[in-house]
Design goal:
7 strands; alpha+beta; globular; L-fuculose-1-phosphate Aldolase; about 210 residues; single chain
Length: about 210
């Protein structure tokens, strides 16, 4: 069993990686890991490249914390995702450029490419805008994440979850790639969509692939 200190370092390393990959910049975005009594989350207003394991904040399920740092202002939707998705072991929120471009247009990512199914369905929805850190934002995100593992956040960015940090980071990268492809296609024309039947077949194939892995 990995101890708490090393889990904190895993979170730091993943946060730095989101910046290296261009998914976040400066102090944007935040990451968390589920714990038995709550979750670990990156702190508020701290550039990822300056993070240390000691900066990571432990937050209980009631939203309380004891740390020299405040948790990310978005701690509420991290907590609520864990509460509503028992399979969520890690949550990543980014301000990645292509996801944020579509989010500012209030556009979802439709089934123009079969890899959209990685997010759990036949689209990647866009949650309605609400003030950052607010309860309403959390409500909007949970609605967009119904039967999904990722969504865009209107005029804001993207959030996704997976069973662990490695998988969540891979999903964040894939959603950003899909957002870029979709946005690049739009000036040429609206891409055709895969049918519900076709996407159901993809989802079933993905489920079988994961079982084999």
């Amino acid at each position: 069993m990995t101890n708490v200190k090393s889990r904190r370092q895993l979170l730091v390393d993943a946060a730095v990686e989101t910046s290296r990959l261009g998914l976040n910049h400066g102090m944007s975005g935040n990451l968390s890991l589920r714990e038995d009594d709550g979750f670990l989350i990156t702190p508020s207003a701290c550039p990822h490249e300056r993070l240390t394991a000691q900066d990571i904040v432990a937050v209980s399920w009631d939203g309380a914390w004891t740390s020299a740092h405040r948790p990310s202002s978005e701690w509420r939707f991290h907590r609520d995702i864990y509460r509503h998705h028992s399979d969520a072991g890690a949550v990543i929120h980014t301000h990645s450029p292509w996801c944020t471009t579509l989010a500012c247009l209030e556009r979802e990512i439709p089934a123009f490419h079969y890899m959209v199914a990685m997010a759990g369905g036949d689209s990647i929805r866009c949650a309605d805008y609400a003030l950052f850190g607010s309860e309403q934002l959390s409500v909007n995100i949970l609605s967009a994440l119904r039967d999904r593992k990722a969504c865009l956040i209107g005029h804001h960015g993207m959030v996704c979850f997976e069973r662990d940090l490695h998988s969540a980071l891979a999903l964040a990268v894939e959603v950003e790639h899909l957002a870029r492809l979709y946005a690049q296609a739009l000036p040429i024309g609206e891409p055709s969509r895969l049918s519900g039947q076709q996407m159901t077949a993809v989802l079933q194939a993905f489920a079988g692939y994961r079982r084999q892995g």
